[in-house]
User: Which sequence fits this backbone?
């Protein structure tokens, strides 16, 4: 799957494009963990390009959130569409992530 | 059972009354006194009973003797055997140990007496008159029995037998009895003492047990009674067994508490560690040798190592920059209990970050030990720099039109009266620059609205033909000045948008203004408007300098200006595209950009005709 990465100031925004499912989900996980190390956790997941999420995709999101939680950080997700928000709600994972409406708001939360 | 040792020692000491013995001894003394009183009472009662028995026996003896003697004397006197009667009385008086024994006539003459000298009548009278004589016997308190009994003498009269006899108390028997009672009492006392000596140890044990039970307050931690020497008897053994069980229970409870403490303490440490790991700030504890003893998860991330790698590492290793490491080390060694902070800019390195290290010594008694916090302030610094850049840009943006206005006004004042053309030209410049100023100020206000989240739309019918005509007019002078071709390609009929006229106008202004600004002289700017289904698509294409691919994702950020040397002479606040994107999104539309360096850019705005709210 396509993973677009760009920087907003000191914050790296990772934007996967396409369905977050196996095997693309593992690629996203790998990329996000690399970005997390490089940017010391200044990371935002732009979910506006994610059209669908399966169980593996959810696992990846939780794993990245857990990895960030070990250093007192949270996974900031922005631009989640209605489908993703509903899935997170149904799986009781809404509170696992910090959610923002757009990239700018998410980036501003690092200030 | 250490507490039992001193008491055991005391048990073998020379104290007159030992622990618990006072009660037993006093009880023993009371018992002994009671025993003595009982013995004395018994002795008294025995002697009294014996005395009464003796008196009763003597009285009965005298009564029998009197009756026998009176009958015998009466019969013998009836046949005038006075001499024999006198012998009999004398014999009786002697043999029966009588004080007095005599036969007395009614007139008091003594006919016979145990003591011959007491006889006052030598012969038996023939007859005499005598009052009736009753028989009687009495016992005086002095222990003397007095008997009076009539002696009937046939054909002569009645005489009177008088006997006075002492009661003989056998003194020997009395003292024997007293000695016997005393001996029995003494024996009982000795037996009591012997038993006491035998039971003394057990009494002691019971005394100790009693004291312990009275002092028992029920708490597990209270000091309990000492153990007893098992030679003190079965009670001591039972007591020791009880103590052993109690001690066992106490130790078991203590073990449980210790086990709970041992299991709870790591739990609290673990919780504390988890809490520290939740902190966004990195936390490091260093010892007096400047080596890390603790690091949380954030510290590991900020320093690019694992927590295990950090433990034991020196501060010099953690901070590569020698100056900062030295200043932190100085703060630690000086021991001033305040925070000393150093900011380390590592941008351009692997981590590309700005870290703020703050150090504070921990304890006065532990010099060298300190706590270091690490904070990632990269984004704050970037934002700060962006704001500074923005202020510079805005200052320039404001100053340039103001300068133009001032110069034009001066020219108009100086030369305007003589040359109407010059005056008109100056007023035109002033008008354009004022509009430019208005746009800059409007942009800044809009940015403030976006930042505060208060930007809203005042929807109205927007006739696009009018809007584009106005835009064309606004930029006519500017494009003419730069010899740029500005072309509007509009369809024959444009729809009416339900949108915020001012905001849409602002967005399109920004796009066209950018296109004109970044297009060199002689270039071309085209505004193509098309209607696709329920959307209006506006494309602003220029033949300008283009945008590098690496900057494409950032150009809609606020205050962002591409780091491009070609922009050195082109001013801008870095707000235009951010505002445009915000306005388009608020109208439910989208904005996209395609660009190629040195060839130009195309910004595409798609707006819904029905203008659904975003």
Assistant:
């Amino acid at each position: 799957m396509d993973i677009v990465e760009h920087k907003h100031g000191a914050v790296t925004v990772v934007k996967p494009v396409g369905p977050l499912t196996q095997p693309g989900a593992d690629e996203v996980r790998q990329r996000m963990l690399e970005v997390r190390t490089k940017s010391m956790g200044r990371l935002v997941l732009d979910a506006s390009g994610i059209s669908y999420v399966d169980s593996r995709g959810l696992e990846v999101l939780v794993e990245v959130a857990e990895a960030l939680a070990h250093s007192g950080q949270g996974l900031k997700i922005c631009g989640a569409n209605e489908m993703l928000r509903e899935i997170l709600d149904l799986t009781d994972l809404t509170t696992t992530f910090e959610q923002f409406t757009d990239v700018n708001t998410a980036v501003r939360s690092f200030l | 059972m250490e507490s039992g040792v001193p008491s055991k020692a005391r048990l073998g000491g020379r104290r007159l009354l030992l622990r618990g013995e006072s009660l037993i001894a006093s009880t023993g003394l009371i018992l002994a006194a009671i025993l003595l009183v009982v013995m004395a009472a018994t002795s008294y009662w025995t002697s009294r009973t014996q005395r009464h028995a003796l008196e009763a026996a003597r009285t009965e003896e005298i009564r029998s003797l009197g009756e026998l003697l009176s009958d015998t004397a009466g019969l013998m006197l009836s046949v005038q055997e006075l001499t024999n009667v006198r012998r009999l009385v004398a014999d009786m008086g002697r043999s029966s140990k009588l004080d007095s024994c005599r036969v007395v006539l009614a007139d008091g003459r003594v006919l016979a007496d145990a003591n011959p000298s007491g006889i006052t009548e030598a012969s038996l009278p023939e007859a005499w008159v005598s009052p009736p004589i009753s028989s009687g016997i009495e016992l005086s308190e002095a222990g003397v029995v007095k008997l009076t009994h009539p002696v009937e003498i046939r054909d002569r009269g009645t005489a009177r037998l008088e006997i006075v006899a002492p009661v003989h108390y056998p003194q020997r028997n009395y003292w024997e009895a007293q000695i016997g009672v005393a001996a029995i009492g003494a024996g009982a006392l000795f037996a009591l003492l012997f038993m006491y000596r035998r039971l003394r140890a057990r009494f002691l044990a019971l005394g100790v047990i009693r004291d312990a039970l009275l002092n028992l307050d029920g708490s597990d931690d209270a000091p309990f009674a000492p153990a007893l020497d098992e030679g003190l008897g079965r009670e001591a053994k039972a007591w020791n067994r009880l103590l052993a069980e109690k001690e066992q229970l106490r130790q078991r409870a203590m073990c449980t508490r210790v086990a709970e403490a041992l299991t709870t303490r790591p739990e609290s440490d673990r919780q504390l560690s988890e809490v520290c790991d939740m902190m966004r700030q990195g936390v490091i504890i260093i010892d007096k040798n400047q080596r890390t003893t603790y690091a949380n998860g954030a510290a590991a991330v900020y320093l690019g190592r694992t927590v295990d790698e950090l433990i034991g590492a020196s501060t010099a290793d953690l901070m590569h920059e020698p100056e900062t490491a030295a200043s932190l080390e100085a703060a630690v060694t000086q021991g001033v209990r305040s925070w000393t902070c150093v900011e380390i800019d590592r941008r351009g390195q692997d981590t590309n970050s700005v870290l703020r290290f703050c150090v504070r010594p921990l304890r006065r008694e532990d010099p060298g030990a300190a706590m270091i916090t690490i904070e990632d302030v990269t984004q704050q610094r970037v934002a700060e720099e962006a704001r500074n850049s923005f202020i510079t840009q805005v200052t320039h943006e404001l100053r340039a039109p103001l300068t133009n206005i001032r110069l034009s006004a001066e020219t108009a004042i100086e030369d305007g009266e003589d040359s109407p053309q010059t005056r008109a030209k100056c007023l035109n410049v002033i008008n354009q620059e004022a509009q430019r100023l208005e746009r800059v100020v409007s942009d800044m206000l809009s940015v403030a609205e976006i930042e505060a989240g208060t930007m809203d739309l005042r929807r109205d019918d927007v006739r696009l033909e009018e809007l584009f005509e106005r835009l064309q007019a606004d930029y006519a002078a500017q494009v003419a000045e730069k010899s740029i071709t500005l072309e509007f390609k509009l369809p024959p009929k444009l729809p009416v948008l339900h949108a915020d006229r001012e905001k849409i106008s602002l967005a399109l202004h920004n796009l066209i203004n950018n296109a004109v600004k970044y297009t060199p002289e002689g270039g071309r700017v085209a505004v193509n408007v098309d209607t696709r289904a329920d959307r209006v698509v506006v494309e602003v294409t220029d033949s300008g300098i283009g945008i590098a691919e690496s900057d494409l994702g950032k150009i809609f950020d606020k205050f962002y200006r591409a780091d491009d040397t070609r922009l050195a002479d082109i001013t801008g606040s870095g707000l235009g595209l951010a505002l445009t994107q915000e306005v388009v999104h608020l109208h439910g539309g989208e904005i996209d950009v395609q660009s190629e360096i040195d060839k130009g850019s195309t910004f595409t705005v798609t707006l819904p005709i029905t203008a659904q709210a975003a």
Q: What stands out?
A: DSSP finds four helices and six strands in chain A. The mean pLDDT of chain A is 88. Residues 33 and 67 of chain A are 8 Å apart (CA to CA). The interface with chain B takes residues 4, 6-11, 13, 36-42, 69-73, 102, 104, 107, 110-111 of chain A (CB under 8 Å).
